[in-house]
């Protein structure tokens, strides 16, 4: 609910800090006193487009902030999604300046106007004779039936399952397309896999084969090098015999000289290392065999491998192995795909069958409830002096499932006896729609938690008993929600629990507007003024008290 509002430098309002209350509140005031200015400020809070001409003369900017008690609303998820601190008392602020800039904040966090609208549409709604467009919306008609039938939660559950059903159908379509593509590529896949199979990528290491090929191609150079190594190390005049002789001399002459001992040890290590090199060279040389047939075989294998690498733009054997696995999966999909499709189709048919049964149950519940809803609305409209009104919900089964079942709704309306009902968007006037919306909102408020509602002079053009009935209806709604009505009718004002008067006055050569919370005595005078004008007589005061005594 709206609990506080702060307004500064906005049109005729210099500075205003005002508290609102639960239940039904009426706002009255003379024409031009500033009631529309208050609505304009609230519209800023709702994220509506700013009118920069309304910035007052005290500064180059205006400021409007509202506090909402959201402790009983399920809105924490919105704050989490938008990374804004959640508090039971939520502050929404708009600032606009003469340079044409506008800023918005929620709990002191900068937000976009879109975010403001997303939030505040759950907090407060404004209704007037120009705000009944929802009555022309087919989705609103269906939602209205569901709320008043008490099946809103069941419909939401159906919608969730219907979305899962649609997702399954979408996945099936994608799967069919994949399978069809795989099937059309079957010959190509078989050819590519046969080429891969010839490479035997799972058992042949082509890096080792490449090393072997290099050896075969350079056999003469390798043999010459190995022979040179073994000869230079092992021949009588070679390095090893010379080093061994030197080592022997050192061992005889070292005479416990530590430096000579160190040199002897290093020389011995070198001899051991060179002996090992010589031995490995000889062994390697003995195992080398120039084989022209093997060279040709290796060349052909490596050429085939490199050709496939280049063909598929792969950089390694592992990439080829991964590509082969992918093709095998595609070929398997083409082979087993039809069975997968049939299995998925059976699953989807079961889901669809379940949803159709459920949708039919919802349709029957709507049909049963529609008769009662029509009577309830007709009764309220009769109280509002629309006795010859006929309202019908035409519930039409749809051929296909939709997100809320299999029901389409036409709201049919007639306000005159003997005149056939027609689609409401074609026949109802603004005043009739306004009273119909009031009756509908009254019934809805008894079924579910609604945002705070501001009715902006929806009683325009009515008087007498109709005005009194509107007052009764607003009072009834106020038992379940916060409701604020801007009115000029005493019958409507008399039913309120709280009364605010908008006043205009002159101060220091400037006309200003303010709000005043009226006590019981002030309320009597204000309601009497609404009845008799500026000259309040005793009869008007008595009548005002009479209206208030009916509260």
Characterization of this structure:
- The chain has 551 residues and is α/β, with parallel strands linked by helices.
- Among the domains are: 223 residues, 3-Layer(aba) Sandwich (Rossmann fold), CATH 3.40.50.300; 149 residues, no CATH class.
- The chain contains 18 helices and 15 strands.
- Strand 9 and strand 10 form a beta hairpin.
- Helix 8 runs antiparallel to helix 10 and helix 12 packs across helix 14.
- The radius of gyration is 45 Å and the shape is elongated.
Quick gist of this model?
With 551 residues, the protein is of the alpha/beta class.
Rg for CA atoms: 45 Å
Shape: elongated
| Average of the residue pLDDT scores | 85
SS-based structural class? alpha/beta
CATH level-four homologous superfamily name of the domain at 1-123 and 452-551: P-loop containing nucleotide triphosphate hydrolases
CATH architecture descriptor of the domain at 1-123 and 452-551:
3-Layer(aba) Sandwich
